[in-house]
Design brief:
Blueprint lengths: L1 H14 L4 E6 L6 H12 L13 E4 L9 E5 L4 H14 L6 E5 L12 E8 L6 E8 L4 H6 L1
Parallel strand pairs: 1-4, 1-5, 3-4
Antiparallel strand pairs: 2-3, 5-6
Helix pairs in contact: 1-2
């Protein structure tokens, strides 16, 4: 978990000023929400961070201009057909000045036309090991991914 926290903090430093749209991909229980919790802890979110599996979206407003607003989606309950119905809304959350994190983005990954960071989390050789793979979709986040 220490390495996951360190990686989340590193990403936080890179996106805290301008924001980013991050798609989190990986099977259930692999650590997408844990990574999100560590990232939002660094960003300065004081509220309890939980996976919005049943509400689809949790909002964490910016604090006094010092922190960007954070939008945390979980598309698990929507699956592929449901995600297609909210793609235009997701596009609205891909603007500068916000941090948008989308768990289970694999349900709509092929449909999302906007620039983003894809973060794939998977198990390593043991159940305790995780492998994190970052990919910049489009040019906008190439520098962020290269810095990671």
């Amino acid at each position: 978990m220490d390495e996951t926290r360190a990686l989340a903090l590193r990403l936080g430093r890179l996106i805290e000023k301008n924001g980013a749209f991050v798609s989190l991909l990986g099977e259930i229980g692999v650590g997408k929400t844990a990574f999100t919790k560590f990232l939002l802890e660094y960003i300065g979110v004081k509220e309890a961070v939980t996976s919005p599996s049943f509400v689809i979206l949790n909002e964490y407003p910016g604090k006094g201009g010092a922190h960007l607003p954070v939008y945390h989606f979980d598309l698990y309950r929507l699956e592929e057909e449901g995600v297609k119905t909210i793609l235009s809304e997701l596009c609205e959350y891909s603007r500068e000045g916000v941090i948008t994190l989308v768990e289970w983005a694999n349900f709509g990954a092929d449909e999302m036309p906007f620039e983003r960071i894809n973060l794939r989390v998977r198990y390593g050789k043991s159940e305790m090991e995780r492998i994190f793979e970052f990919e910049a979709v489009g040019k906008k986040y190439r520098g962020v991914v290269e810095a990671l």
